[in-house]
Amino acid sequence: MTNTIELTVNGVPYPVSIATDRNLSGVLRNEIGLTGTKEGCDDCECGACMVLLDGQPINACSYLAVQAQGREITTVEGLASGEDMHPLQRNILATGGVQCGFCTPGMLMSAHALLERSPDPTLEEIKIGLSGNLCRCTGYARILDAVEATAVEINS
Amino acid sequence: MTFTIANTLADVLAALAAGARPIAGGTDLVVGARQGKDSLPETLIAIDRVGELRTIEAADDHTRIGSGVTHSMLVSDPLIVEQFTAIADAAALVGSPATRNVGTIGGNVMNGSPAMDTGAPLVVLGAEAELSTTAGSRRVSLDELWVSPGRTSAQTDELCTALVLPNPPDGAGSAYVRLEYRRAMEIAVVGAAAAVTLDGDVITAVRIALTAVAPTILELADLSGLSGRAVDESFFAAVASAASEQAAPISDLRASDRYRRHTIGVMARRATEAAVRRAQGEVIDVPVNRALGVGAAS
Fold this sequence. Notes:
CATH superfamily of the domain at 172-290 in chain B: CO dehydrogenase flavoprotein, C-terminal domain
Strand content of chain A: 15-25%
Strand order of the largest sheet of chain A: 2-1-5-3-4
CATH superfamily of the largest domain in chain A: Beta-grasp domain
Largest sheet of chain A: 5 strands, mixed
Strand content of chain B: 15-25%
CATH topology of the largest domain in chain A: Ubiquitin-like (UB roll)
Low-confidence stretches of chain B: none
Shape of chain B: globular
Low-confidence stretches of chain A: none
Order of helices and strands of chain A: EEHEEEHHHH
CATH topology of the domain at 172-290 in chain B: Enolase-like, domain 1
Number of helices of chain A: 5
Oligomer: heterodimer
CATH architecture of the largest domain in chain A: Roll
Structural class of chain A: alpha+beta
Mean pLDDT of chain B: 96
């Protein structure tokens, strides 16, 4: 059955007509055209599809799109303000926390949710906050550096 | 395939009576469907916005955890962390922050996996499941609820609405410890929960339950001989051997049966040691795995 619903993504309402079994990441990418959210494992393991639902990170690959109606969805496209990058985006580039870049949108969303909830996290808290996101390039150290640098920036 | 979002418990129970299946966070249901294990049910009712299911209520003699309470809510609830600590230890280990944000305790219990993390803590803390239909509610012991891997004794029109636990007595402490190969998105290789009550240095009550070593969560039998004993090395050694002897593990890609039988003794001992320390008033941060460096190295 096709559900005609509205999804609110980065503050913008998008009407979509989708089958019940469609996952949120697929609808974001194909119907809504926001391809920043990546499809990695499609099995809730890698975190490349991480988006925020009412501010909390979820794996969009394994979340039914119809279940997200009425909630605020935030994707990586919602981080920047116009041409100005979000501090996390600026810092992850500055520290060299981006190599192939495939994990980056998911990392940014997990880090963003963490800093919104806990603006001055310990290194351990950052590691737990990013524990659902895999990166096969960087070895993580520079990604952690970027989150720490952003926390310092926010708190100064 | 139809999908409805419920706002009240009455709506959910009416939908189940008409044949719908419930979905909360979907962390088992949707992942399973995408892996091709089971297709999604024909009629789904989303229960994650039903406020009545998402509360933790303390009464004089018991505490009621709504089935829609997420793992994240459990870990950040002071009552759960202080009084039902083993549940918080377990909830903090489930999946990743994304899993914990939408995965619920009711979903964990009703999915019926022998590797579920919150199951053994609920057993040792004496939890009963509240099952509801449009006609009313009943409470069942978890032993009665879990039939075999992935199967419960609940009827299809019954929703698990809460887990109901007696409030622990003074001098009680609990802990859950899990053997794991990595620190996130992990499933228990084996795990153990312990709840103990102390009167000074003497054990007055002890319950231990094991994860992923039997077709369902396994509570250790015949522990009454351990009550009345002092907390000493022989007590912990007895716990470890009882766990290894009573476990009925299988070999699979995660571990061999022999490895599970050995390590479950180690985990049961560690959980009991942590529960004793908490019963003595020591604060060990949740989860024990991280506080004591059990499990995967950082």
